[in-house]
Amino acid sequence: MKLKQLMAMMAGVALTCGVALAQETNITFNVNQAIPDGDLSGMALSTNLTLPTLAGSISAVTVSLNITGGWNGDLYGYLVRPGGEGFAVLFNRAGVTNTGSQFGYGDAGFNVTFSDASSDNFHYYQNVGGYSLSGSTWAPDGRNIDPGSDPNLFGSTSPSTFLSSFNGYGANGVWTLFLADLSAGDQATLVSWTLDITTVPEPSTMALTGVGLAGAMLLIRRRIRS
Q1: With bands split at pLDDT 50, 70 and 90, how would you rate the model's confidence at 51?
Q2: Does residue 171 register a pLDDT over 50?
Q3: pTM for the structure as a whole
Q4: Percentage of the chain modeled with pLDDT above 70
Q5: How far apart are alpha carbons 204 and 51 in whole angstroms?
Q6: Using an 8 Å Cβ cutoff, are 48 and 169 in contact?
């Protein structure tokens, strides 16, 4: 390889290292467990993530859930990051509002992804024309209120707890998914859930890599001149 080609290649690598090298980790948990019916204490599923690929800080999180049966308007679910920093309400009694039914939507289950990138909030999914509860992506409900609150409060409360609340924190440790069913009579089952985390290296790591490459290029130039 010619010297100019080598230096151009190293310069390209150095430029790449100056940009956050995002790394995505996707983990699916097969559960097949019934969500306690009519029980606010619900169920908490905790998983300890200590994979080497999760180095750096979080830049994005999405969550997918496959739930069968039940009554969607009864369901409440949220995700908590390791250490308790970061909290996102995924769904909070979908369809319950001050202008609609106090019981929420009666669809039985869903297989969807929650992402802040979506403009369609899951709480009002029936208002979206041609909506689908299979393979679709929705913005998390985000309403940080007691799921047993008066229906009027659901209509007047704005979403405030998003998946972006995890950004900037480390990803390793115990993540907890909490699910509850507020009303007895329709049994829902969590078939599986998927946690998708994108991390980027810490600025200090990227800086050291860039400095190292720059030093190597400088050494090559000195050798040429001598």
Answers
A1: low
A2: yes
A3: 0.80
A4: 79
A5: 21
A6: no
Q: Which residues contact 183 (CB under 8 A, 6 or more apart)?
A: 38, 71, 74, 103
Q: What is the DSSP string of 76-103?
A: EEEEE-GGG--EEEEEESTT--SSS-TT
When pLDDT is averaged across residues 7-23 and rounded to a whole number, the result is 51
How many residues in the chain?
226
Using pLDDT thresholds of 50, 70 and 90, give the confidence band for residue 224: very low
Q: How far apart are CA 3 and CA 24, in angstroms?
A: 35
Contact 67, 190 (CB under 8 A): yes
Which structure tokens are listed for 150?
């008066």
Four-way CATH pick for 23-216: 1.20.1250.20, 2.60.120.260, 1.10.3720.10, 3.40.50.360:
2.60.120.260
What count of Cα atoms within 13 Å lies in the side-chain half-sphere of residue 122?
Answer: 35
| Residue boundaries of the structural domains of the chain | 23-216
- Give the separation between CA 103 and CA 108, rounded to whole angstroms: 13
Asked whether the predicted pLDDT for residue 6 surpasses 50, the reply is: no
- Rounded to whole angstroms, the Cα distance separating 104 from 123 reads 9
Residue written as token pair 């940080």? 144
Q: Degrees (nearest 5) of the Cα angle 56, 62, 66?
A: 140
Q: In 3-state terms, what secondary structure has residue 17?
A: helix
Measured CA to CA, the distance from residue 50 to residue 48 in angstroms comes to 6
